[in-house]
Amino acid sequence: LQTIAEQAVLLRDLPRSYAGKLKVGSVLIMATDAFKVQVRGNMVMRITGVAHDEVTPGLDVGNPLEVSTLLANNNKTHGNIDGDYFLGTFNDARDFACLCIGYQQALCEKSYASVQNAGTDGSLSWTNAFVPNADALS
Questions:
Q1: What are the residues whose beta carbons fall under 8 Å from the beta carbon of 107, sequence distance 6 or more?
Q2: What tens digit of pLDDT does each residue of 19-75 get?
C-alpha cells in the first residue's frame, strides 16, 4: 500500500502549468468565491464556480498543497480520490483537475506494469498493491 509520502511523490512528479488569474486588461474577474472540482468514480466530473457558503468549512480555499493532501488522504482512506475539492481560481481548479487525471494515469500505469509481471514468481494470483484494501476483497 502506498503511504501519503509515496502519493505526494506521484503528485509532485506530474507536469502542471501555472497560469495566472483571469484578467481582462487590468481588471480581475471574480464571478465566484471559489471553484469546486468534483471527482466521482476516480474521474473528474466537472469544475464549477461556487459561493463562499458552499465551501467545505475549515478548508483553506486556494491552497493547492492542502487540496492535494486531501486528495492523497482520500485515496489512502477510501481507495479512491472521489470528493469535492475547492480552489480559489479557475486556473488552479483546472490545473488540479489535470493533476487528478494524471494521478490516476500514474496509478494505472504502475498497476499495468505490476500485472504484466504477475506469475513471474510462480504465484498464480495477483493483487493490485496500489489499491488500498484490495486484499479485503473476496
A1: 10, 130
A2: 333 333 433 444 467 899 999 988 999 999 988 777 766 555 656 778 888 888 888
* Cα distance between residue 99 and residue 116, in whole Å: 26
Q: What is the C-alpha separation between 115 and 92, in angstroms, rounded?
A: 34
Q: Angle 13-17-96 (CA atoms, 0-180°, nearest 5)?
A: 75
Does residue 91 contact residue 20 with C-beta atoms inside 8 Å? yes
Burial 82-109 (b: 16+ CB within 10 A, else e): bbbbbbbbbbbbbbbbbbbbbbbebbee
- How confident is the model over 87-108, as pLDDT tens digits? 888 998 999 999 899 988 988 8
For the chain, the DSSP string reads: ---HHHHHHHHHHS--------EETTEEP-SSSEEEEEEETTEEEEEEEE-GGGSPTT--TT-HHHHHHHHHHHHHHHSS--EEEEESSHHHHHHHHHHHHHHHHHHHHHHHHHHHTTTTTS-S----TTSTTGGG--
